[in-house]
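Appendix C reproduces, verbatim, an entry submitted by the partner laboratory led by Prof. M.T., so that reviewers can inspect both the input and the predicted structure.
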Amino acid sequence: MTSRAFARETDSARSRVSTQHRIEGLDLLRGVAILLVLIRHSWPEAVGGGGIVGVVIFFTLSGYLITGLLVADLRQYGKVRYGRFYRNRAIRLIPALVFLLIGFIIVEGILDVSGTRGSVVRSVLVSLTYTMNIPGFDHGSANLSHLWTLANEEQFYLIWPLILAVGIRFRRMRIVIALASGGLILWLVATVLSTSDRIDRAYDHPAIWTIAMVIGAAAQLGQASIDRHLRGRRATIGAMVGGAGLAALALVPGAKESVVFYLVGGALIGALTVLVIWKLRVIPTVTAVWKPLLGLGVISYAAYLWNYPITWWLRDAGVDAWAPLAVVLTIVAATVSWFAVERPMNAWKRHLDARARLRNLDPVLAGSTAR
């Protein structure tokens, strides 16, 4: 290749990189998910199953997007570039978590607002090792117990690329999905049966909601087939059905204490979320009326990190109007996290990827919008 041709290629690559952007339709879905979580934490009687629905929406979307990244690697290179994959996951997730933990150390380690100073070190270690969802040992402060969801996702990131590589390598992806789903269902049933006397103990168990990630992953792998059935008006109707179903499940009273909800909730929410994803994934921008919810979706990761501890810190401090204040302070903390930590780290990640593309003339991968 001549130097002039190489220059044209690099200019084209830079152009493609500069036009990458988040899919606002999916950020809108993130906004809905985190709004349900915020409402559940501040007004639990308003949305009985809202917290579960919000979390499982995130799980489904994560399975869908992460599988897109992995498949792009496998199809182009014949393997997952594990170094790049885990580097980008770490850049995306860990800095905001560390920012939260610094706040946690200040509030509970120094100010001791919740009276849990003695468990701060254990809490931080459990959080950083993504083991909050593993039963059978002391996790530290309950104010960080919501980080079981991050543990679920990180463990999925460790196992799923290997399973996916095997399925694609031997061209038996349907069998792999079926086996993974079957194994999860058996594990789920066994977990529910063993905790049926106090089903709420199973809430943060890794077996319960992970099926939604597999459903999201299966949707990514089966896009061509789904597209044949969900096009145009059908996609719109599907999204309406999915949205209505999710809203109904969010209003189920006592969902966290329902054995039936634990048995079928993850799969049902995952399937309904896929219906919504199929419409929103082709909406690059949303109208002005949705911008507040869109903004909430952009900062949803940090909002999830901060909301639960903020809620408990205000309650432990005896603040009367803690419920609305928790939402306000969550949005403030998440906004600070986004601008001070997440956005700069995302820019660095894009810089590393762009530099690799320009060096290797790699095409831009379509999964750059992953959470």
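The chain is about 75% helix and 0% strand. Additional entries are available on request from the coordinating office.
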